[in-house]
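To illustrate the input format used throughout this study, we show a single complete record. The first block contains the structure-token representation of the backbone; no residue identities are included at this stage. The design step must infer an amino acid for every position from geometry alone.
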């Protein structure tokens, strides 16, 4: 077996006859964009090309990512109790995606898919572990930066530890504030955060726990002064203010409503339980709801800031979640029906683990109140941004730009043949969505050729009725996708790869 080396395309790219190193490609396109300042002049041979032109000025791009927010946790996706008026307004004034999927069912791989335009069968980081992005990995931030965008990320990163090649400033972001390490990010009252490559000491005092196989720092505060989400929300407003005069890309990677897993049943940390303090609910459920409403409040402040600065019409704002709802820190995803009509939670490859509440707003271009069922995923974000910035997408990515869908040009929207996920905890799992069909294989580590469960999402979105016995030809097709959709992974192998 040949392992993928650090500076080469995966094997499958050889079939295209393209030997271009990803970094060389980036340099080539980036050089062209920077030197001519006219994206239309980029060499057409260098990328897969653009399908749709937006015309006019290139928009600012903001991706707001919630952490462990379920498909049913927001009002515009059916939530009846937790108040999310600003996210609901964003959907009403823009677009709702009913069939948008996260990159994975846990944090790091989901974010890797988002940043690199590759699904978990091809991307570097296929599980939660300390594997940093490499210089050879091309991120959406690098592409937008080279196209002339100011690039910033505030919140949680998870794709590289201090001093590694994976830190945001070495992956295309001009500006970075927040948590590098995911376990560190569990704690909402940390002792420190990062601003670019500098540690920013906070006034909180923390009982640090060195936990887990990766020995990374988690903790629970003994003195709670500064709530990290509030700092992150302010940083987002500052970034927009500072860059109002040029195209910018802001990746707002919020940590809400993830639990502080180190705090046991008191992990739903939030400074105030309002507006739910007097409800007759268990404490963690009050915390869960209060976190989400607090996040929604700050999304409202960000939208108001865009309006105040006159950027409203020319800013594309995308909101989603990195995986399904968790059952950690005392939270109970059944209490608020956090998965909505879907089966499963975080760590499942059933729909509840990966289908995520997603909205987009761009008043200049997206018509108000649209709902689309285009089957899309996190790896589509990179090519969509390339379309928005007027540059070509890199060769060999898995994503497909959904710009035509945003513009209401459904007739020209290219569709995925299928979507693929692999997950390397709990016995290893694989899943495929192929049109209305969904295939899930459990216990892949023990039984790589084991049975595939088959569901028809059109008639059974809850994935309760396994119809594999009735459709052997569909199962065979899905099995062939599970085999062909991946390249070997050094850190996340599957049997017989
Ligand atoms: Ca997550």
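Output of the design step:
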């Amino acid at each position: 077996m040949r392992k993928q080396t650090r500076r080469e395309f995966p094997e499958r790219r050889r079939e295209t006859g393209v030997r271009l190193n990803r970094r060389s490609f980036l340099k080539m396109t980036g050089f062209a964009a920077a030197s001519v300042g006219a994206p239309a002049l980029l060499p057409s041979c260098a990328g897969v090309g653009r399908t749709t032109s937006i015309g006019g000025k290139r928009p600012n791009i903001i991706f707001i990512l919630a952490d462990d927010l379920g498909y049913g946790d927001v009002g515009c996706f059916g939530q009846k109790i937790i108040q999310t008026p600003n996210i609901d307004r964003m959907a009403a004034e823009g677009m709702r995606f009913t069939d948008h999927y996260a990159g994975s069912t846990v944090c790091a791989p989901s974010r890797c898919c988002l940043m690199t335009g590759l699904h978990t069968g091809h991307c570097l980081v296929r599980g939660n572990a300390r594997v940093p992005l490499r210089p050879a990995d091309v991120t959406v931030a690098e592409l937008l930066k080279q196209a002339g965008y100011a690039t910033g990320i505030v919140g949680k990163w998870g794709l590289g530890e201090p001093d590694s090649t994976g830190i945001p400033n070495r992956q295309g972001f001009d500006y970075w504030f927040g948590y590098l390490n995911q376990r560190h990010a569990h704690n909402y009252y940390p002792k420190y955060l990062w601003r670019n490559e500098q540690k920013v000491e906070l006034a909180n005092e923390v009982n640090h726990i060195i936990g887990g196989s990766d020995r990374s720092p988690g903790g629970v505060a003994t003195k709670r002064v500064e709530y990290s989400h509030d700092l992150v929300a302010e940083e987002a407003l500052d970034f927009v203010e500072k860059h109002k005069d040029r195209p910018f890309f802001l990746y707002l990677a919020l940590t809400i409503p993830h639990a502080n897993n180190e705090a046991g049943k008191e992990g739903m940390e939030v400074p105030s339980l309002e507006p739910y303090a007097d409800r007759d609910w268990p404490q963690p459920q009050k915390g869960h709801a209060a976190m989400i409403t607090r996040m929604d409040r700050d999304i409202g402040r960000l939208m108001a800031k865009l309006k105040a600065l006159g950027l409203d019409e020319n800013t594309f704002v995308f909101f989603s979640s990195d995986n399904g709802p968790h059952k950690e820190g005392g939270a109970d995803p059944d209490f608020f029906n956090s998965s909505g009509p879907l089966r499963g939670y975080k760590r499942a490859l059933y729909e509840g683990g990966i289908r995520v509440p997603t909205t987009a707003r761009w008043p200049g271009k997206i018509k108000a109140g649209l709902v689309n069922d285009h089957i899309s995923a996190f790896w589509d974000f990179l090519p969509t941004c390339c379309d928005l910035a007027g540059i070509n997408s890199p060769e060999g990515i898995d994503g497909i730009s959904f710009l035509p869908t945003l513009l209401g040009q459904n007739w020209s929207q290219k569709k995925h043949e299928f979507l693929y996920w692999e997950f390397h905890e709990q016995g290893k799992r694989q899943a495929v969505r192929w049109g209305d069909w969904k295939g899930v294989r459990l216990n892949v580590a023990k039984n790589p050729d084991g049975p595939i469960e088959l569901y028809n999402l059109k008639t059974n979105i809850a994935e309760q009725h396994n119809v594999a016995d009735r459709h052997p030809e569909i199962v065979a097709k899905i099995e062939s996708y599970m085999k062909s959709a991946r390249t070997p992974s050094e850190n996340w192998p599957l049997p017989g790869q």
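Structural context for interpreting the output: The longest helix spans residues 283-308. The two ends are 8 Å apart (CA to CA).
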